[in-house]
Automatic annotation (TrEMBL):
Pfam families: Peptidase_S9. GO terms for biological process: proteolysis. Residues 143-343 form the Peptidase S9 prolyl oligopeptidase catalytic domain. InterPro entries: AB_hydrolase_fold (IPR029058), Peptidase_S9_cat (IPR001375), Xaa-Pro_dipeptidyl-ppase/CocE (IPR050585). This is Peptidase S9 prolyl oligopeptidase catalytic domain-containing protein. It comes from Aegilops tauschii subsp. strangulata. The lineage of its organism: Eukaryota, Viridiplantae, Streptophyta, Embryophyta, Tracheophyta. One of its GO terms (molecular function) is serine-type peptidase activity. SUPFAM superfamilies: alpha/beta-Hydrolases. Coiled coil: none annotated.
Length: 360
């Protein structure tokens, strides 16, 4: 049997007679599937230093201890040679804006064995807001995260209130409060790291995809914590999204937002005058979940307001980018955008930046 508690998966053997559970010692912190056999079984899992893999596990005669654990398939079989570059996530609890309440995140400090930051300089921070919005970030090896940490950035993956994996009460924090709880938790965690001397307060950036893109835009519109943001196929107008998204999710937001008035009050497009920092947007033109008009409307409004803003549109991409060249381009353009507008440093890679309106 497997269970998940406070961001970690546990695997155990249940004794049906006594009801006792013997936890098994395995190197995976996240489990997806378990397939049992006779004297062994297979599991799919990952950890902060092991990519998604399938392992064969053999137990002792009493079926309470692991005597053999071997990976038989890996999604990224060649990455382990670069393990010295991997920043291992630190699971952190932090206080939210509600007294006595805590939320959770994974913090990745910058790491590159070939370079070292200046002793008196704190790193810039990129906060990632996961999608869903009721999904969960799991703290497993993600090379897109390592892209940032190997280049001197600290990276923060937030499981804001409403995320799966921390119990029903935690999951229900987001009911009627999407655009409030998620935003507050992301801002609170960034400030928590600043207060603990981990990151540079003047170089806090935020990014997110889909619902995470909405949290990104809402954080920039309704709070002043971050200095720049990147929205990937994010939502600027939740009223418009309810009308235009595909049928399957058309009523999904009713429990997350609430009244008609809340739809207006929590749509960043209606409060462009509150944005104060640069924004870059990425959008697939074949996206049926978050249609291209979402990115185009917020881009046009921000451009007219005089803020630095850029928009990248991809032909043939839907909700989530699939083409390797577009995934690479998106990462690189976020990096150079933040470096130019907030970081004030030259990127190590040979990247040609796109034009930033009201900046170039």
């Amino acid at each position: 049997m497997s269970r998940r508690q406070l961001g970690k998966s546990y695997l155990g053997v249940l004794d049906c007679d006594s009801g006792s559970v013997s936890l098994l010692d395995i190197p995976f912190s996240d489990l997806s599937n378990v397939v049992t056999g006779n004297d062994y079984f297979y599991i799919e899992g990952a950890s902060g230093s092991i990519p998604t893999s399938i392992a064969k596990v053999t137990l002792d005669e009493n079926k309470t201890k692991v005597i053999s654990f071997s990976i038989v398939w890996s999604s990224s079989p060649n990455v382990m040679q670069y393990r010295s570059f991997f920043s291992t996530p630190e699971f952190i609890e932090f206080p939210t804006s509600s007294p006595g309440q805590k939320a959770y995140a994974y913090f990745y400090p910058p790491l590159n064995p070939m370079f070292e930051g200046l002793p008196d300089e704190k790193p810039p921070l990129l906060v990632k807001t996961h999608g869903g919005p009721t999904a969960e970030t799991r703290g497993v090896l993600d090379l897109s995260v390592q892209y940032w940490t190997s280049r001197g950035w600290a990276f923060l993956d937030v499981n804001y209130g409403g995320s799966t994996g921390y119990g029903r009460e935690y999951r229900e924090r987001l009911l009627k409060k999407w655009g409030i709880v998620d935003v507050d938790d992301c801002c609170s965690c960034a400030r928590f790291l600043v207060e603990n001397g981990k990151v540079d307060e003047q170089r806090l950036c935020i990014t997110g995809r889909s619902a995470g893109g909405y949290t990104t835009l809402a954080s920039l519109a309704f709070r002043d914590t971050f200095k720049a943001g990147a929205s990937l196929y994010g939502i600027g107008d939740i009223t418009l999204l309810r009308a235009e998204t595909h049928k399957f999710e058309s009523r999904y937001m009713d429990n997350l937002v609430g009244s008609e008035g809340a739809y207006y009050e929590r749509s960043p497009i209606n409060f462009v005058n509150k944005f104060t920092c640069p924004v870059i947007l990425f959008q697939g033109l074949d996206d049926k979940v978050v249609p291209p008009d979402q990115a185009r409307k917020i881009y046009k409004a921000l451009k007219e307001s005089g803020l630095p803003v850029a928009l990248v549109e991809y032909e043939g991409e839907q909700h989530g980018f699939r083409k390797a060249e577009n995934i690479k381009f998106t990462l690189e353009q976020q990096m150079v955008f933040f470096a130019r507008t907030v970081g004030k440093f030259e990127v190590a890679d040979d990247i040609t930046p796109i034009k930033i309106e009201n900046f170039d």
